[in-house]
Structure formats: C-alpha cells, structure tokens
Amino acid sequence: MDILTVRDLTVGKKSSPVIEKLDFSVAQGETLAIIGPNGAGKTTLFKALLGLTPYSGSVTWAPNVKIGYVPQRMEIETDIPLTVEEFFKLHGSVATPEKIREILNYVQLDTPILKSGFGEISVGQRQRILVGWSIMDNPNVLLFDEPTADVDIFGQESIYKMISHLHKTLGLTVILISHDLSIVYQYANNVLCLNHQKLCYGIPDEMLQAEHLQSLYGGERGLYKHDHGNEKAHNHTSS
C-alpha cells in the first residue's frame, strides 16, 4: 500500500523550474532516501510534500496520514532562556511529563537534559530533541532534511541508528535527504536521484552505480571508494 504518490510534480517558473514533472511513490513502512547535488530541489520537494510551496501536478497522501518533519538545523542562541523541558511543553497539552519521558527514551537521551538550556546542549543532542519533537503527535511519516548536517562524524552514525530504531519500533515511513551514500546503502529501501528531474529511482544497490552518479552529480566531482558491508568496494561519485 502506497502512503505517498507524486505525479507530474512541477515547482517554480515554467522557464526554469526547480522541480520538473517528478513521479514517484512511497510504500507504507518504507525508508526512501533522496540524493542529489546542492540546489537540485531536494528541500523544495519537501516543502511541496508538506504543502508549503505552490506546485502543479499532484501530491497524494494516504487518508488520515500524520506527518512529522525534522529540519536540517535550528539556529538557537546559547543564551536563550528556554530549557529542553520548556521547549517540549511548547507542543501543548500532548507534552505531559509521561509523554516527554517516553520521547526521551525513544531518542536515547537521559532525563537530566530536560533542565539544560536549549541553546547550551550539543548539536547532536539538539537534533535528537528535534526528532523527539517531531514524534510527539504520533506521526505515520517522518521527513528528515539532512538530519546530521552539522553533527560531527562520531555522532552521525548514532543518529541514523536512532532513526532506524524509530522506524522499526513505531512502524514509521521515513523519507530522508542525505549526502552520505553509506547511510543510503545501510538504511534505505529505495533511493530517488534528483537533479530538478528524476534521474533514477530504485533500490540502492542498483541505482548507486557510477553511471547514475556521474549523471546526477556531473563530471566535476571526484570518485571515491565506498565499502558496503562485506561486499567489494564500488567507485562512486562523491556527494
């Protein structure tokens, strides 16, 4: 059963569309990764899926779907007078003490962080809090816009493991934008290659071949070795 169907989606001016005649679908419970160069329309696609920008064509969600969204980053001043607990409580009546503790357990944070200033915690902790915020209303679908963009290399894998845990535990459909092809290999059922148009769509092992990535990113990018589990390394265009 498809939870999302996109047909003939076009965003932007006819003379220079940001996205043009895009078609794809996402099955319930699937993890879809979206890859492409900077400026390819990935974040614009998310805005269209969320109904935040005008478009032509159709975006059809399954009936009664509820969507959570995690932005790439949230700029917070370190001296902002807001604790993590107060931030959660901005969600309204759903943010009971019991619910907040449940959410912290899901995002693998300890309760003492609730008393910390929201601007004082680490970038990785802040991203986990944003993920927690996004699942407060028990969504069916989570959209992640490069969820580890500002996180150091040691924290990135743990955040993706957390996302995978949420996907399995809560039965979520996950759509994520990522530049890390190893993450796409490890966690995605399907990958959408986007550069204003759909250049490829399918399972990562078949789509993330050199010819697809060369078409997606162009010849100016170098090639790098990507080790996929115990399989032999592939040459891929870097992203």
Automatic annotation (TrEMBL):
InterPro entries hit by this protein: AAA+_ATPase, ABC_transporter-like_ATP-bd, Metal_Ion_Import_ABC, P-loop_NTPase
Keywords attached to this entry: ATP-binding, Nucleotide-binding, Transport
Keyword set includes Mitochondrion: no
Keyword ATP-binding among UniProt keywords: yes
Domain ABC transporter: 4-221
Molecular function GO labels: ATP binding; ATP hydrolysis activity
Protein family per UniProt: Belongs to the ABC transporter superfamily.
PANTHER family for this protein: METAL TRANSPORT SYSTEM ATP-BINDING PROTEIN TM_0124-RELATED
Protein name per its UniProtKB record: ABC transporter related protein
Organism for this UniProt entry: Candidatus Wolfebacteria bacterium GW2011_GWE2_44_13
